[in-house]
Amino acid sequence: MNSTTNTANAAENKMGIMPVRKLLVNMSLPMMCSMLVQAMYNVVDSVFVSHVSEDALTAVSLAFPIQSLIIAIGAGTGVGVNALVSRALGEKKRDEADKVALHGVFLSFLSYIAFLIVGLFLVKPFYATQTDSYVIASYGYDYLSVCCIFSIGIFTQFIFERLLQSTGRTFQTMITQTIGAVTNIILDPILIFGLFGFPRMEAKGAAVATVIGQCIAGILAIVFNFKYNDDLDFKFSKFRPCGYVIKNIYIIGVPSIIMQSIGSVMVLGLNKILMAFSSTAVAVFGVYFKLQSFVFMPVFGLNNGMIPIIAYNYGAKNKDRMIKTFTFALQIAVTIMVVGAIVMEMIPGVILNIFNASESMLSMGITALKIICIHFPIAAFCIVTGSLFQALGKATYSMINSIMRQLVVLLPVAYLLGLTGNVNNVWWAFPIAELASATVTSIFYIRIKKTIISKI
Question: Which end of the chain has fewer CB atoms surrounding its CB within 10 Å, N or C?
Answer without folding.
Answer: N
